Amino acid sequence: RMIDLLGAYSFCTLLGQSQKMTDAASEGDAIPQQADTVNVQPRKVKDEPLWLDAWLNPLAGVRCFSSCIELADINGDGDYKLLIADYQKKLKVFSGTDLAFETPLLDTPCAVCAFYTEPSDMLRRPALAVASGPSVFIYKNLKPFYKFFLPCIEINPIEADVWANIRGGKVTTSSALEVLQHAKENGVPLSTRSLELLSIEDSNEREQYVEECKNLPLIQQTVITCMTVLRKESEDPGAVGYLVIGTENSRILILDSQFQIIKKVQLQSPPVFMCATGLYNVDYRIVIACRNGYINTVKNGESLGVAIELESQPCGMVRVDKSIVIGTMGNVLHAYHVKGKKQYSTYLPAAITNMCAVQLETMRGTKACIVALSNGEIRVYNGKVLINTIQVKDIVTGLKYGRYGREDATMIVTTKTGAIMIKMLPRLASLEVTKGQQSGPPPEQDIPLKVPKKTKLYVEQTQREKDFGVEMHRVFQRDLCKLRLQTARAYVKILTDGQGPLSNTGGCSLRLTAHVQGLGPLFKIKLNIQNTGLKSLTSIPIIFTYNKSIYQMRKPSMVVPVLVPSLVYHYEVSVLCIDESAGSDVIRVYVCSATSSVPIITALVNMPLTDFLLP
Question: Would the pTM of this model clear 0.90, i.e. be above it?
């Protein structure tokens, strides 16, 4: 009925306009020629959020990190499930918004991976690997299938001989303890049993511990720190994959489909994050973030000699296209090419808690990086450009992007309180960098500077520099070398006279810092002395000189019994100001040597003005 009325109204309006035009033509008026265009005002569309809130369960009670979250089609029917290995030793499987399955684990998990082991499986059901301690538990159809146990660490022959002699009664506990302590000081890696023995101070408890452990086999077991999957010979989603395991004893192990070790790579530090790309049978590369702050690369089973050094320890790493994006504990995102060349750095306002990569299967194949911060922000970066930011009311502990259910673009978020959030990207969502978001030079760069006119003096100086440029450069280099030489001589004189904060005279190398505390009239001078040499020093006298009419010290000298290398010793000395009207003065601290009249090192303490209490 409404459509008929609107149609009749439009017909009458057009008929009226046609009648007016006919009347104007009959009066001889020219009909103006109008273009066949209609000016339509653009409709204002609200800025819709990038992520759609699909599901929130604040009472899920999930405790896990990103490495323990996986999305997999465990039934082979195209319906992807959410698998979470909880730190409460439970494996939980979510389907839609329901908890579909739950089974207990034997140990606390540290990583979860889904991979395919049989190319002949018609249902294309993946296996699930759960890393817990020194073991990897393999599940098929959510049922235990296989258990892989890490090989034991080889015991050093020195330590093995010590425990063999203890077992045979050839040595006493005290002599064995000395041998183990000497081996530890020389850098020999010891087992947990020996380290536990060295940490016991009571002799009776030590003897009891030796009696309990001497007849047991000496075995040192390592644990798993990280795990990922490397495809064997195809990049297809259902292709066979190999497990790549990082261990606490700084090793990378690659397991085949039969869960046998086919490759071992030794690193300098335990790995914490890994990104594997390529195919094992063709060419592959594994980028590893180690605990010592270095990024190592393993290519085709060989560790490359070039390593990337970070300014702080890594707390997250993802691969985005041909770049490796690394989040550090210094609140910075660093991007490197897979071959090691640095691309950019992005500084963030808070600490990084989790990272994951995003890939949209569009015509351009957009790839981005999701970063979760400790202030509750979840940011999406395309390169170094910030695309979107959402705020979560809790600290994010787990982050995973992938396919969930029938949706390809899903983000799983777990929080510190145990909640689970599922957010989805709309089908037409775009993570491309728009013109307004493109980073580059500021607009002020296009504004021309007001350059003053060339004066006669400027022209003369320019011509002089052209004519005598070589001589001027030589004079500058000569004066610069003289300045460097005089500076070096003065610095060496300060060190040899014992006037600097660091001294290396008389075969002794010390570092001394002194600062004063208090408002007065009683002050406290705190000394920090460190032996930076290689040999221990004994009976080191320390002397204080001051104005006796202003200050008073109970002990103006002291003797340090021993200075062990690399240890920092702290001493405190009380100073009393006895003249309230004398102002302040300097107290000198001399660290002397028994073999030389020149002090090893000297420190000057500028005393503050004394605040006497009013009567």
Answer: no
